[in-house]
Design the sequence.
């Protein structure tokens, strides 16, 4: 049986603090059979392929635990749920896997989806029909009244093709978990925050502790992982006590939450990239500045970073996710910004942040997809990087610095052709962004200012 040998001047395993020099990787059947010094590596035999990594930095393929593969770079909640058929969402998601792959991300976790979209994309890739990143697939987000993904009024509800699935009783919640497990998901997402707040400004969780624990126990009993969206202290606490696998955001956690997380072995994936982009790009976007959205996001970042730094110092393990799939976080563009944020905002060393984005995040992948580190027995997903991310993690955001992407030891050429964004998403029918009163027409210079406006329109 032929093997692939990769000679690496500089190699980062995804498990250590430093890079190693003069290493070799040997791959058999897509899995590492040797990782170690070149001097003691098995000699290539006739028919083996030998790859020289040259001066490139060799590291595990990156993992994003929060990529909404089927949102289509949406601009609104209507855009996520209303306009596009499940069939088109799946095709669109398959297309965008190439953008993700080209960015050096060889694995993605899709937390929340509709129906069978990400399951279908995953199955098509796993069957060898398409080359794409490894996918941990999900189905509808389990929501309660007023939690995220139950974002339309009660008279609209959550029809089947929506990303949310309203489950109001414990029995409905557990039944939905069983339905998703039967339909082949790898993980289940619960939307833990409620929209309502206490007088002191604290979010009220959308589920009770008892409901949360029942859902997590059933998912784990069926061998499925659980990811939750939770900003609020109460939601984070319930999720941690229930033993969820990953908590997204966790911005308003307190010391008791940190203790509960350490006890349960849960992980935090802050997914601050979306907030960072919201603040940075909203400066040029008048509507979100006016609405207070930008200021609100900045406030959440300030409080969240303070709290999350405490969690890191206490030893809570972190994963990396970007919330890719919205217009503010298009596929393939910002995944690695989260690594930079861990370093610059939360005090991680570059090696710690790179481990978070590889071996730690890989724990959310299905057991059959053992990835995330250059280690014997794991699947041989790795990338060649020009320059050292241990010196500067930001270079991982530059697609031209990702000089090779390998899945199971085989180099893949991700195609990222252009496309017409207006025919991919953004089907909202918004035609006007302001009120065109006669006064406004004067302000715009469309009517003479001397015009005698009736009092009522002023
Ligand atoms: Zn998300």
Sequence:
């Amino acid at each position: 049986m032929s093997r692939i040998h990769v000679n690496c001047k500089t190699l980062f395993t995804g498990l250590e603090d430093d890079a190693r020099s003069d290493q070799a990787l040997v791959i058999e059947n897509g899995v590492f059979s040797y990782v170690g010094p070149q001097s003691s590596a098995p000699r290539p035999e006739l028919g083996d392929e030998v790859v020289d990594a040259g001066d490139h930095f060799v590291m595990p393929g990156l993992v994003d635990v929060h990529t909404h593969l089927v949102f289509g770079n949406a601009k609104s909640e209507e855009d996520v749920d209303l306009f596009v058929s499940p069939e088109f969402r799946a095709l669109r998601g398959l297309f965008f896997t190439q953008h993700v792959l080209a960015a050096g991300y060889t694995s993605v976790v899709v937390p929340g989806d509709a129906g069978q979209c990400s399951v279908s994309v995953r199955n098509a890739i796993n069957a060898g029909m398409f080359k794409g990143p490894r996918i941990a697939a999900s189905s509808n987000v389990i929501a309660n009244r007023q939690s995220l993904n139950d974002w339309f009024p009660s008279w609209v509800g959550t029809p089947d093709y929506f990303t949310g699935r309203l489950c109001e009783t414990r029995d409905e919640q557990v039944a939905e978990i069983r339905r998703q497990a039967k339909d082949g998901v790898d993980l289940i997402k619960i939307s833990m925050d409620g929209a309502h707040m206490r007088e002191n400004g604290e979010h009220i969780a959308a589920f009770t502790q008892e409901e949360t624990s029942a859902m997590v126990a059933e998912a784990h009993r069926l061998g499925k992982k659980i990811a939750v969206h939770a900003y609020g202290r109460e939601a984070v606490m319930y999720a941690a006590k229930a033993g969820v696998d990953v908590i997204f955001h966790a911005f308003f956690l307190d010391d008791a939450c940190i203790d509960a997380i350490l006890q349960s072995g849960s992980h935090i994936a802050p997914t601050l990239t979306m907030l960072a982009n919201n603040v940075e790009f909203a400066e040029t976007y008048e509507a979100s500045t006016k609405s207070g959205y930008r200021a609100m996001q900045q406030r959440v970042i300030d409080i969240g970073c303070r709290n999350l730094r405490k969690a890191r110092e206490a030893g809570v393990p972190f994963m990396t996710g970007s919330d890719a799939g919205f217009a503010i976080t298009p596929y393939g563009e910002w995944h690695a910004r989260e690594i930079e944020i861990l370093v610059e905002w939360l005090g991680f060393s570059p090696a710690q942040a790179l481990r978070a984005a590889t071996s730690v995040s890989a724990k959310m992948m299905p057991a059959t997809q053992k990835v995330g580190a250059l280690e014997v027995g794991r699947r041989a997903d790795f990338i060649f990087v020009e320059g050292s991310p241990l010196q500067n993690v930001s270079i991982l955001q530059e697609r031209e610095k990702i000089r090779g992407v390998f899945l199971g030891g085989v180099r893949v050429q991700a195609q990222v052709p252009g496309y017409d964004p207006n025919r991919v998403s953004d089907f909202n029918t918004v035609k006007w962004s302001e009120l065109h009163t006669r006064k406004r027409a004067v302000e715009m210079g469309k009517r003479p200012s001397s015009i005698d406006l009736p009092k009522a329109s002023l």
Q: What stands out?
A: The chain has a mean pLDDT of 94. The pocket of zinc ion is lined by residues 66, 68, 323 (CB under 6 Å). Residues 293-314 form the longest helix (22 residues).
